[in-house]
């Protein structure tokens, strides 16, 4: 095969993973990032086995092992009763079952590991402070025009991949598709020192169900910090799509919850709140030689903790297809065909969980009873289709 090239727009988790996978497929990659510093904004992130095995295959197992926490179990708790409804033992069951760990990690730690790997990869050329202004394509290639320091520069390649997030410029400029829409949910995120947290929370990922709200918490940063994410049904009246949140407003949404949970929510000095947005399903992921990946293609609600995992999977599949064929347009067609059904099933599952997590009254009591009666092994098996996904392996030489 002749040497090919790709442009990847966006150096977030999805873009960096895609750049590494495409480079290791033998293509030269130009990676364009609007920010002047590669830095993740956010807090914790759950990386289930379907995604962790991709990262391990990329050689990130050792650097992430020192920063990530391999959680021992997922605990499902009820604010209504104050107790645990069920649990999945990841330490004893998931690792032998899936062959890869279930990690929780600070987003910045994962992005830093990916960025360092991209910097070491000779086929990747990174340009920071590059604001996309135009996307064009013809029968032989695609181009991205960016503004860097007040000067316009155009990069050309055989294909262009938009991994520039929920507010994707590539989606708008390259595919003329509508952008994301607010879902009526906000996520409040904060990090506190692990030394302030009860010991029984420090090895687990815990989700609490409540009336119209739920809470997720887990350790990050080698267990030295603790991540809190509260999801509430809400309006959005702020400028932009993230803002500082008022702790007292958040606590008012958790009135009547168990004291130990409200004590957790009282710990952070600062909360940041984010509008949760999603993409319409059914839109194309590519046109000609321009494709979308991760949130730019399929932003989803976080009720399966699979947003980053799906972007990581996207990168692995696209890289594998490019390693096997020179026909770029056919590769992008196959990429969409291989990925869309799975991703849309994850989106549908997350939407179902949205309803289940936030039930009220008798339906909430029925949910809690049902969860208590389900054997833990059966509960885990419901996730086999997600966690058991295997990335494609390189074609034989």
TrEMBL record:
- Coiled-coil stretches: none
Q: What is this protein called?
A: FAD-binding domain-containing protein
Enumerate the cofactors the protein uses.
Answer: FAD
FAD-binding domain mapped to chain residues? 6-348
Domain of life (superkingdom): Bacteria
| Family annotation (InterPro entries) | FAD-bd (IPR002938), FAD-dep_Monooxygenase_BioMet (IPR050493), FAD/NAD-bd_sf (IPR036188)
A GO molecular-function term, please? monooxygenase activity
Q: Which SUPFAM superfamilies match?
A: FAD-linked reductases, C-terminal domain, FAD/NAD(P)-binding domain
Q: Which UniProt keywords apply?
A: FAD, Flavoprotein, Monooxygenase, Oxidoreductase
Which Pfam families does the record match to this protein? FAD_binding_3
- The answer on whether this UniProt entry bears the keyword Oxidoreductase reads yes
């Amino acid at each position: 095969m002749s040497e090919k090239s790709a442009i990847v727009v966006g150096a977030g988790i999805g873009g960096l993973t895609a750049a590494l996978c495409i480079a290791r497929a033998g293509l030269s990659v130009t990676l364009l990032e609007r920010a002047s510093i590669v830095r993740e904004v956010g807090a914790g992130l759950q990386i289930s086995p379907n995604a962790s095995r991709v990262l391990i295959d990329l050689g990130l197992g050792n650097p992430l092992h020192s920063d990530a926490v391999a959680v021992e179990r997922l605990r499902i708790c009820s604010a209504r009763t104050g107790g645990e409804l069920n649990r999945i033992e990841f330490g004893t069951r998931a690792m032998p079952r899936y062959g890869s760990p279930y990690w929780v990690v600070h987003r910045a730690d994962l992005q830093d590991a990916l960025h360092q790997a991209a910097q070491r990869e000779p086929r990747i050329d990174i340009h920071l402070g590059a604001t996309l202004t135009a996307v064009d394509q013809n029968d032989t290639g695609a181009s991205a025009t960016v503004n860097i320091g007040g000067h316009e520069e155009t990069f050309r390649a055989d294909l262009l991949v938009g991994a520039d997030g929920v507010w994707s410029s590539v989606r708008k400029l390259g595919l003329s598709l509508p952008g994301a829409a607010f879902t009526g949910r906000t996520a409040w995120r904060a990090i506190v020192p692990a030394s302030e947290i009860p010991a029984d929370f420090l090895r687990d990922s815990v989700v609490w169900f409540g009336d119209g709200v739920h809470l997720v918490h887990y350790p990050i940063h080698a267990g030295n910090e603790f991540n809190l994410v509260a999801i509430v049904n809400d309006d959005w009246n702020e400028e932009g799509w993230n803002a500082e949140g008022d702790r007292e407003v958040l606590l008012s949404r958790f009135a009547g919850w168990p004291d130990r949970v409200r004590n957790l929510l009282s710990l952070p000095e600062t909360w940041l709140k984010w509008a949760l947005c999603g993409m319409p399903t059914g839109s194309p992921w590519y046109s000609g030689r321009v494709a979308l990946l991760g949130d730019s293609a399929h932003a989803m609600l976080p009720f399966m903790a699979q947003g980053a995992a799906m972007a990581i999977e996207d990168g692995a599949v696209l890289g594998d297809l490019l390693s096997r064929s020179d026909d770029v347009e056919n590769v992008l067609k196959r990429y969409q065909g291989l990925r869309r059904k799975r991703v849309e099933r994850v989106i549908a599952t997350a939407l179902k969980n949205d309803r289940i997590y936030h039930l009220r009254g008798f339906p909430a009591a029925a949910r809690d009873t049902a969860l208590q009666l389900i054997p833990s092994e059966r509960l885990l098996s419901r996730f086999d289709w997600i966690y058991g996904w295997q990335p494609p392996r390189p074609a034989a030489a």
